[in-house]
Amino acid sequence: QVQLVESGGGLVQAGGSLRLSCAASGGILSRDIMAWFRQAPGKERDFVARLMWSGGSPAYADSVKGRFTISRDNVKNTVYLQMNSLKPEDTAVYYCAAGRGQWSSSSRAYQSWGQGTQVTVSS
Question: Rounded CA gap, 39 and 118, in Å?
Fold first, then answer.
C-alpha cells in the first residue's frame, strides 16, 4: 500500500496560481494511477485529474481543463497539480490518491489517500 502526503495549499486571489505536491512512498508500480480529487464544504468528493505513474496522457475534469496540469517526478516519487487561473469555485480540500487496476474518475477506484490540503481562492 502507498502512503501519500499532500502539501502546497493556501490562499490565493482569483486568477492566481498554486502548485500542489503529493509525496508518495511504500512502493509505487508503473501501472498505478495517480489522481487528484477535491471536496468543497457540503459537497461530494469530485475527480480533478489523473495520470498513470509511468506517464502518458492525463485526464481532467471538464471544469479544470486548460487550467490545471497533473505531472509526476519518478525520481522524487512526487505527483504535482499545477493550478492556474484559479476561480473561487476551485476552493476545496484537495486530496491525492493512488489506485491500481482501473483508469477511472471514481473515488472508489483508489485505494490510497493523502490527508488533504486546503485551497482557498478569494474573489
Answer: 10
Q: Which residues pair with 11 in a beta bridge?
A: 120
Q: Which residue has the cell 506517464?
A: 55
Record the cell numbers describing residue 67, joined without a space: 487550467
Share of the chain above pLDDT 90, in %: 91
Residue located via cell numbers 512512498: 25
Q: Report whether 15 contacts 83 (CB < 8 A).
A: no
The burial of 75, by beta-carbon neighbours within 10 Å (0-12 exposed, 13-18 middle, 19 or more buried), is given as: exposed
Q: Is the pLDDT assigned to residue 111 strictly greater than 90?
A: yes
Tell me the mean pLDDT in the region 67-76: 96
Instruction: Give the torsion sign (CA, 84, 87, 90, 92).
Output: positive
How many C-beta atoms surround the C-beta of residue 19 within 10 A? Answer: 13
Q: Are 37 and 99 in contact (CB under 8 A)?
A: no
CA gap 80, 32 in Å, rounded: 15
pLDDT reported for residue 103 = 94
